[in-house]
Amino acid sequence: MSKANPIILETDMDEDEDEFVTQSVVKAVPRISIEVFCESPDTGVVIQRAGEDRRLAKAHLTVHMGGISAAVKYYADTGTPSLIIVESRDGGETLFNQLGALAEVCDAGTKVIIVGHLNDITLYREMIRQGVNEYLVAPLAPLQIVDSISRLYADPDAPPIGRSIVFTGARGGVGSSTIAHNVSWCVAEGMREDVTLIDLDLPFGTAGLDFNQDPLQGVADALAQPERLDDVLLDRLLLKCTDRLSIFGAPGTLDRDEEISADACESVIEAVRETCPCVVVDLPNVWNRWSRQTLLNADEIVITATPDLASLRNTKNYIDLIKKFRTNDTAPHVVLNQVRMPKRPEISPADFADAIEQEPTLILPFNPVLFGTAANNGQMLDEVDPKNKTTTAIHHLAALVTGRHALPSKPSKSLQGGLLGGAKKKKKG
Fold first, then answer.
1. What is the pLDDT, as a whole number, of residue 385?
2. Which pairing describes strands 134-137 and 111-116: parallel, antiparallel, or unpaired?
């Protein structure tokens, strides 16, 4: 069973004094053709795995065996693609002679990445000087290849793409929306980063209620006309909750049938990502083409479950699907919510973890007073009880999913277990 690194809950951290290290987002690659010539089968396998990455979904990648000489022979009588990746074990004059031969058959505009086996900074600088776009040293990881390709085709003048975080429930009523909304608040108010919350539960969404707002317009209007969603329209449709938090609210009415197209949904989310560093998507408990695509395209995924059989089965199905189609991404975060509800039979956290083959990121105890007070007052947990351990745990989840690792300013006493993946493993005899 895979084991995630345990999260350490700092009981006396001051969020205002924390520093954060933010991970960058790998941008999707445009519709290009990529041809690869490998000397090593292992390199070919890794690059093939990279080609299956969601960020290369629009690109067409083909892997051939043979190094630079095979590429030169192949392109002697045909045009070259957008990008050529070639592997070489050679160095020095031999390598540069091969690159010269490759340059003679390359069309203008073709980019070249070399996968080499010599970790030599002088060699690297000379190849860059001669026009090679990137030099990577084997062995490689799939995401390293994806990142290198992405950086070659990213518009240097384009704004950074915001991180997308999708929250979904293993079934209805597990508290996924509540967790999503509170994480959004923590990122905006605790980490001081701009956040846009997109509520995609059009008939029953609660983002407006939870933030004590009444969105007259919102995400439904954007989904109906995604081609018109420019900065002006987006600014008009977004509801400003705080200086750093905006919500793309759902209408929350049953007076019209809402049809969501997968393409429209993707367009709206991408438009928001171009204007905001953090985009939280509250995904309803439905399963269709647009919800599946939204889930699999996210930078981070959070699955909220309760300790019952239906949640366990559905969580396992989610994890299996995500692992199959997101081989180069981190595993989804699992929040086990409403644990230790009085008089309710439950699956223990340890057994739940064994069944899904993954430790929950957070284990949140049943706390009807805290959550009920916040929901009925249109408040966040932080506003009701900022020192509550559950509130603190949500702050740490926010740091994880945004790729922002908190660096405490002072030593503090740590509490492990309970709220934080606290499923105790059985002793092995």
1. 94
2. parallel
